[in-house]
User: Fold this.
Amino acid sequence: MPSDLRLRRTFDRLHRDVCRKVGDIDVTLMIGSEVEFPLVRNYAYCADTSPIRIVVAPKIVGDTDDRIEAVLRHEFGHAVDFAAGEREITALAKRLGYPM
Assistant:
C-alpha cells in the first residue's frame, strides 16, 4: 500500500478514536512542503484554523508506522487543545481520570 495511504488510514483511525473520546472535532490532514520542515526533527505541526489542520512533513510518508502514529497522536493532542479551550480541557482531564 502506498505510504500516503498508510498515513491517511492512520489519521482517519486516530481521528475517529479522538472523536469517540472527546466529541467531534473538525481536523484535516495535509502534507506540507519540505521548506516548512527544514530541520531533521521537524515532522509536523497543528494549526489553529477552521478547520484545525495537522500538517506533516513529506518525509513522514516513508517512515515507520510507529513514527507516523506517534507524530499524529501528538498533533491530535494539540488539536484537542485548540478545539476545547482551557476550561473544557480541565473537565476532560478530570473525566478521563487525570489528576488536576
In short: Residues 84 and 97 are 17 Å apart (CA to CA). Helices lie at 3-22, 65-95. The mean pLDDT is 90.
